[in-house]
């Protein structure tokens, strides 16, 4: 070997070595950069973030109580569809349909107030706090506003860049889905039977529009329904094909419509469940024992509800350098 060749060989092996060193340190750095979800992720980058969100949720709740229902429904509709990545919040574009426009999202409301919360956070810490964390923390604070438990939740999620509308129906069950399918879908997120039973307790607040109910009233009344409740449902939904422009609906829990409590379980045991899934929850032999237990014990309901919300909120998040921090929750950032 000539001295020149030796020199090149040395150079080559040196650069190969430094390349090795580089890749190993790069992957170390990546682990440091991506702790995944943690408690109080923004403690250094935006220490006031969680307080700002809490305050905004409180102010909005004072003005419109139903915002809290929306924050609770959002966590299901975003996190159960593959990932808590705020894909739910994206508007339709020329190329893609918004998840919000799908039939499964029927009746979802108050999305503009998510922007109110986001704007308040952006004023303090621009470009730092993700919409997916705002969605999850607003659900946590909304649940507490409704008289539910306070559930400590991790943060550090980042926002997705595309709508998941085309696969929505594979993840979100329909109002009349069989209990086997419902149980399977929750199990695939790591949510067990008592967890599912507790989460459906969310139907202790809010409303259901007549379009989702009329098949249980017309052409004939579902014999499984409690006749006392049928009278009320027929009064609220007088047409077999509801006028799409008239906002006709039945409250999910007539007893305590504004409170997240275990009254839902007593209602469904009394055959007053509005949706077919609600009714099945109280009759299916796999779920009924938990329904009875939750009807008796609010503490047990809250314990299982808190556990399940935590699992739901940690479903397959984007963390580290994946995704982005959206500037506005209804739009992906422009790439330069
Ligand atoms: C099998 C699963 C589920 C089905 C089929 C289902 C279906 C529905 C339907 C059809 C409505 C009525 C929408 C309307 O007409 O306006 C509704 C409302 C609601 N759902 Fe669910 N849901 C399910 C699970 C959940 C879960 C897991 C949560 C929360 C963690 C949740 C939270 C809510 C809330 C809070 C409302 C009331 C919304 C409002 O009044 O604005 N649901 N759901
Ligand atoms: C569930 O209801 C929808 C209408 O909302 C209907 O098209 C569908 O056939 C029903 N599915 C079952 C399994 O009954």
From TrEMBL:
Entries under Pfam families matching the protein: peroxidase
Gene it is expressed from: LOC115707759
Binding-site positions, substrate: 173
Cysteine disulfide partners in this protein: 46-125, 79-84, 131-329, 210-237
EC assignment: 1.11.1.7
Presence of keyword Cytoplasm: no
Any coiled-coil regions, as ranges: none
Single GO cellular component term: extracellular region
Location, primary (coarse class): secreted
Protein name: Peroxidase
CDD domains (alphabetical): secretory_peroxidase
Binding site for heme b: 203
Signal peptide: 1-26
Family the entry assigns: Belongs to the peroxidase family. Classical plant (class III) peroxidase subfamily.
Enzyme class: oxidoreductase
Native species: Cannabis sativa (Hemp)
């Amino acid at each position: 070997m000539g001295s020149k060749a030796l020199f090149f060989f040395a150079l080559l092996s040196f650069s190969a070595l430094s390349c090795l060193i580089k890749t190993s340190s790069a992957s170390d750095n990546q682990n440091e950069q991506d702790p995944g979800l943690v408690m109080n992720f923004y403690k250094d980058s935006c220490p006031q973030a969680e307080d700002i969100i809490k305050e905004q949720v409180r102010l909005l709740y004072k003005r419109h109580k139903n915002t809290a229902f929306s924050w609770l429904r959002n966590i299901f509709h975003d996190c159960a569809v593959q990932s808590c990545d705020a894909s739910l919040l994206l508007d339709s574009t020329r190329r893609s349909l918004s998840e919000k426009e799908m039939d499964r999202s029927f009746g979802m409301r108050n999305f503009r107030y998510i922007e109110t919360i986001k704007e308040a956070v952006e004023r303090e810490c621009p470009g730092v706090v993700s919409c997916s964390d705002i969605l999850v923390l607003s659900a946590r604070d909304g649940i507490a506003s409704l008289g539910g438990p306070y559930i400590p939740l991790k943060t550090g999620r980042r926002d997705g860049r595309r709508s998941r509308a085309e696969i929505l129906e594979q993840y979100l069950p329909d109002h009349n889905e069989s209990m086997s399918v419902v149980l399977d879908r929750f199990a695939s997120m790591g949510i067990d039977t008592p967890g599912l039973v507790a989460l459906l307790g969310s139907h202790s607040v809010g409303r259901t529009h007549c379009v989702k109910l009329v098949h249980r009233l017309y052409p004939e009344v579902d014999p499984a329904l409690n006749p006392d409740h049928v009278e009320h449902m027929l009064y609220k939904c007088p047409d077999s094909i509801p006028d799409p422009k008239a906002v006709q609906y039945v409250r999910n829990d007539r007893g305590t419509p504004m409170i997240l409590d275990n009254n839902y379980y007593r209602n469904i045991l009394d055959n007053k469940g509005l949706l077919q899934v609600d009714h099945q929850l109280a009759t299916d032999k796999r779920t009924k024992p938990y329904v009875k237990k939750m009807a008796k014990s609010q503490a047990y309901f809250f314990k299982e509800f808190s556990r399940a919300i935590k699992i739901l909120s940690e479903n397959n998040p984007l963390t580290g350098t994946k995704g982005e921090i959206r500037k506005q929750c209804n739009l992906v950032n422009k790439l330069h």
